[in-house]
Design a protein that fits this description.
This protein has 361 residues and is an alpha/beta fold. Helix content is 38%, strand content 26%. Helix 1 packs across helix 11 and helix 6 crosses helix 11.
């Protein structure tokens, strides 16, 4: 067993496989794919090559987590963790940890986040929460824009997704669950209650996309910006293609029908019918970030063809920091606090994911 293993939990999932393929050539014989089905993990590992191996892990069983973490120095989680057992196990062992799972909203803006940070500092763990696309790449774009303005008061993030590219079953299930949730947004220094797919706003994207209706959505990158960036306003929005589907979802929220999404069986039926959507080859995404500070504004745009590829590139970029760098101090961090935008975005550009920086509108 390699004592410097990089464990990707959910490693044979849509995004996990892509992260493994990104890291394996540079870290041969170190990448391990973790999942509940060992045969599946080993099959995917063999297909990737470069000495990648499979390992069984069930995050609902503490003994399984403990066994899977033997010899591991970096953990990359690509799965939802209702109780965050894997996160806390990694912290207890002083490991380096990052995840792409979007549920940061339960951390709130205070005590829960402070608890993670304090525990990581005490054990020597280095924890970077929320890497991927949003949160993840979006946070690094915010950091780059804020540095150009020498400070920022407002942050607004808008993600456009195709209905055929809500990547992977877990991600799609998360999307459906969020429709039934209330959450807080920060506006002018105060928290205000909001609901997903409310308050539509027309947002301009570069051609050929053009103007899209975007709705408030509880993407997690907004949750900690008041702490990490000192902003008074932080909003995140989601637009969906086709536009008629987004309007139907918004109507469900207005009428209260979105509460059906809290029922697991209903979500499974919808996910099954999603197979009838257009081919993923037609999918695209667009990410727009706007920041304002000191009476000035800046904007950044990222366009791509597959959300999963972008999420994997973002998570792999943060993982490289945890694998290679000593400058990250123990504690709980968000990407905007520890990632060098220039190096990170340069690596993305080599993958065909080039961020365009513009003057704000």
């Amino acid at each position: 067993m390699n004592s410097q293993e990089i464990l990707i939990v959910g490693g044979y999932g849509v995004v996990g496989q892509r992260i493994a393929a990104e890291l394996a050539p540079d870290y041969p014989d170190r990448v391990v794919l973790g999942g509940r089905t060992l045969v599946r993990a080993e099959e995917v590992a063999k297909a990737i090559g470069h000495g990648v191996r499979g390992r069984r892990i069930d995050i609902a069983v503490p003994s399984s987590i403990a066994a899977a973490l033997e010899g591991v120095v970096v953990v990359i989680s690509c799965i939802d963790q209702p109780n965050r057992a894997l996160l806390w196990a990694a912290i207890d062992r002083g490991l380096n940890y990052t995840d792409i799972t979007p549920h940061l909203t339960e951390l709130g803006r205070g005590a829960a986040y402070d608890k993670i940070d304090a525990a990581a500092r005490a054990s020597g763990a280095k924890v970077v929460l929320g890497t991927g696309l949003v949160p993840g790449i979006s946070n690094v774009m915010v950091r780059a824009l804020a540095d150009a303005l020498d400070g920022v008061d407002e942050i607004e993030t808008v993600l456009l997704l195709s209905a055929s590219d809500v990547s992977g079953p877990a991600s799609f299930d998360y999307f459906l669950q969020e429709l039934s949730m209330s959450f807080d947004i920060r506006v002018d220094g105060a928290d205000r209650p909001a609901r997903a797919f409310s308050a539509p706003q027309l947002v301009e994207f570069p051609p050929p996309i053009g103007a899209q209706l975007a709705y408030l959505f509880p993407f997690s990158d907004q949750v900690l910006y008041p702490r990490t960036m000192g902003v008074r306003t932080a909003l995140t929005r989601l637009a969906i293609e086709p536009a008629w589907l987004a309007k139907i979802i918004a109507a469900m929220v207005r009428t209260g029908a979105s509460r059906l999404m809290a029922i697991e069986g209903v979500r499974h039926v919808i996910a099954w019918r999603r197979q009838d959507y257009p081919s993923r080859k037609d999918a695209r995404f667009a990410l727009r970030v706007d920041v304002r500070g000191g009476g000035r504004s800046r904007r950044a745009i990222l366009l791509g063809n597959a959300q999963a590829d972008a999420a994997a590139a973002g998570a792999a970029g943060v993982a490289r920091l945890l694998i290679e760098s000593d400058f990250v101090e123990p504690g709980g961090w968000m990407p905007e606090q520890i990632v060098d935008p220039a190096a990170f975005l340069s690596r993305l550009a080599k993958r065909g994911l080039e961020v365009e920086f513009l003057q704000g509108g």
